[in-house]
Model the fold of this input.
Amino acid sequence: MKGRTSTGLVIAVLITCFIVCGVQPTFAKPHEELTFEPITFKPPVPDKRVLSNGMTLYLLEDHELPLFNINGLIKTGNIYDPADKVGLASICAGVMRTGGTVAREPDMLNEELEFMAASVEVGMSREYSTVNLSTLAEDIEKGLEIFADVLRNPAFREEKLELRKQQAVEGIRRRNDNPIQLAWRNFSALLYGTDHPFGWYSEIEGIESITVDDLKAFHAKYYHPDNMMLAITGDFDTETLIPQLEEVFEGWESTEIAFPDVPIVEATSEPSVNYIFKDLPQSVMLIGHFGIKRTPDFPDYFALRVMNDILGEGGFTSRLMREVREKHGLAYMVGSIMQTSYYTNPGEWFAYSQTRTDKTAEAISLIIDVVKGLRDTPVPQAELQRTKDSLINSFVFGFESSSQIAFQQMMLAYRGFAPDFLETFTDNIAKVTAEDVQAVAQKYLHPDALTIVTVGNKESFDRPLDEFGEVNEIEIEQPAPPPAEPMPEASEADMAKAKEILAAAVEAHGGLEKLKSVKNIVMEARASANTPAGPMQVEGKSYYVYPDKFRQDMKMPQGEMAYVFDGTAGFAMTPMGVQPIPPQMANSFKDAVFRENVWLLANLSQNNIPIQYAGTEEVQGKQAHVLAVQQPSGEMLKVFISDETYYIVKISYREAAQGTTVDRETLMSDYRDVEGIKVPYHIVQNVDGQPFSESSVTGITLNAEIDASLFQEPE
Done:
């Protein structure tokens, strides 16, 4: 009643104001009647200068914040890798930064930058390299000196090269784990051929053959001032900055570079159907062919942008999303990509999808039908206008900083575009008609010349793939996985120490009798997870039934999912239906029950499972004892037990599931008492060294009444 009285009072006061002031109440118009001024985009124009050594600058002063940024381009790229050392360019860029300089050891360089709250980075893409400096305006002079030192005098230290090579080799070993990357790599190889820079990929032998001399030669060939452009933005004065740049780059001479020829493929595609076996609950497919080779005056660019946004790049409003996912429920992920940023060779166009295995052929057929529909029928005006408005808005609001504007202006100059390209972009999108969209769909989309690559298990497909053409089965050479981390050698004293630490941990968590009395644990939590699509909020409920049953229910923005393991096999329940999980994932779930704190401590104490003491390590600033034990899968589990509280504060392990092998670590804190047992209420998980999720436990039940049907597959 109190809330209702307050609301009534507010309304009464408003009505009184209208009466006293003689103002008639007004109401909002329906949104259909609202009109808006067209969005205009007039970006500031950077000041173009050229240093005495030929280096081109694009300068844009911005005094709003005391920051200084440089974003640079060098004409080079992975396309200039030697055929027998594919990966050289990327490794060169990485070690330019991590290897320090002739005058600065890597640690010294890192410490200087950290002290200044600054960063210097070097990157490599297919058709150019990038260099970046970010620092405070008060440190411009020092920042420029370090930036120039990294560019001009990289040391390419042997130990940093070896580390980068090891990382590259590990990436090669894992590259078949991700089914999307597996499909895309083979799609590109089929189009371009594995002897072309757009179609080849690194191999372990080539990576291992790269030497320091190779890096030095690559750097010496391409990194010269007249082969470089810098976009400089921030709180600086142009007339003061130019002499500073001349000084730090003094003596760095321009040179004529003999760029290797990059072979140009003929953008003609023959239809092909290709299958790669991978035992997964969902199939991944790429369906497409060559796209366009971009030029500054490419006439159909704007119509193509609108067309592909309508088809599949426009997210939830695209046709593929509406038809394949929403109307037919065939895919969780679906869309299309039209590469428009390659200038030496045609890019790729393809539709992609991840769909339930028993709907694979149906999904392929529907995707092809959607593509044909875009060719056969003009786009309705409402759909066209919605797409153009979305593109215009995302374009304008994509320039949130002066550094983005200056970099884009520099990139356009690098490619040879007219200076007004950005300013006229929105007008050119707005001019696209339904006839234009249909014309480019007919010109650039060829449903009769599709390359189809499907990754999955054909034994579970709804129909054979040969209905789309003769099937080429691609045999994947899986590089040997890295060996499982060996259990540390332990003396009798170490094994005794492990039992001593374990006993202290058991006591700290509630004592062995309490732990043994627990037959199951049900945990509810809210989590924030980092996903490829951005942060995602998840509500979860996990059931651990000892010794080996596991179920996890999740509520996400996209819908509800559940994974269930009954001790021998399992299944997944997704918006696309119920599907069996592969054996690899089943092993991961068995390990998950083994790792649960209560069962882990009780199990290790009761069942004579070998454990080893592996010394101490720091966890979140405090010392922890490390115990090593083998999981049911054979992978080693490290258990970190606090030296102060004897709570488990961290576990780390390697896991292979859903086609991906990753290194995981779980940090546990905020221990609370639940029926005499200590349980963590704050859980952070990192994957391959990067933050993945942060969970807050909202409820825990011990020895819950659990219906057996929760672990049975629905009819």
